[in-house]
Amino acid sequence: MHADAIVAAQFQSQHAGPSLGNDIDNDNDQQLDLLIDAIESAIGREGTLVMPAFSYSFTKGEPFDVVGTPSAVGMVSERFRTRKGVLRTLDPIFSFACSGPLAPQLCALPVEECFGPDSVFAAVHRLNAYIVDLGCSLSRGGTFVHYVETAYGVKYRYKKIFSGIVLMPDGQRVEGSVAYNVRDLTRRSEADLRSLQSRLIKEGKMRAAEVGRSRILAVTASDFFDTAWKMLDEDPLSLIEEGVQV
């Protein structure tokens, strides 16, 4: 992995992180720190680590406290979010915790559209970050796909505006709105990326490694984007349950 890599890492669940190593089997902060330290060591000092710290605050009618609102997507991301020197992006629905040289740049991005051209997802694409899944697979997840779908203009998603209060790191309360390209709930529009994952592996674009009791998958944002786009060209429903042939 290049020294200046940017890595967007995600975990399967509340309990996915500590199972990655044979000597990690508890949920305490020390062991979570060991895992995060190992990831940062692999990236190097010149690399930037980005983890989902999604809170979904505005979708729940809640204010978003950039510093205080916990991550809703697992204990690893929450531990990372609260570590010294880690910054958080301002999206009141899909925020990210970031550390490294590019963290200030990512956290200064305007928040107008969750998956839009100025979003962190778009920055991850422009920078061709490594998207790394630890202890999970892309088959039923991979939020980056919604950025692809938004750019492509799929018919099973539509933009919806969510508004609320953002409590900034300096204590300022700001009223704001953000556009979220939500899925059409009248359709079987849940993401199903089994075909995408299989294609990425078959074409040699996704790398896999076994670590302890878990599997790590890695793909560049460009390969993910380009392959998913081609699949949508071939079949506009190829990334959701409605269109996937089991």
The main sheet orders its strands as 4-5-2-1-6-10-9
Mean pLDDT: 87
Oligomer: single chain
Classify the helix fraction into a percent range: 25-40%
Distance between the termini: 35 Å
Instruction: Please indicate the percent range of residues in DSSP E strands (runs of 2 or more).
Output: 15-25%
Shape: globular
How is the biggest beta sheet arranged? 7 strands, mixed
Distinct helical segment count: 7
Elements, N to C (H/E): EHEEHEEHHEHEEHEEH
Please state the structural category. Answer: alpha/beta
Radius of gyration: 17 Å
Low-confidence stretches: 13-26
Tally of DSSP β-strands: 10
As for the number of domains, it is: 1
Structure description:
With 246 residues, this protein is α/β, with parallel strands linked by helices. It has one domain. The protein has helices at residues 29-43, 75-81, 103-107, 120-126, 144-152, 194-202, 221-234, and strands at residues 6-11, 48-52, 64-65, 87-88, 96-99, 130-134, 157-167, 173-183, 207-211, 214-220. Strand 7 and strand 8 form a beta hairpin. The chain is globular, with a radius of gyration of 17 Å. Mean pLDDT is 87; it is low at 13-26.
Helices and strands in order:
Blueprint: E1 6-11, H1 29-43, E2 48-52, E3 64-65, H2 75-81, E4 87-88, E5 96-99, H3 103-107, H4 120-126, E6 130-134, H5 144-152, E7 157-167, E8 173-183, H6 194-202, E9 207-211, E10 214-220, H7 221-234
Parallel strand pairs: 1-2, 1-6, 3-7
Antiparallel strand pairs: 2-5, 4-5, 6-10, 7-8, 9-10
Helix pairs in contact: 1-2, 5-7
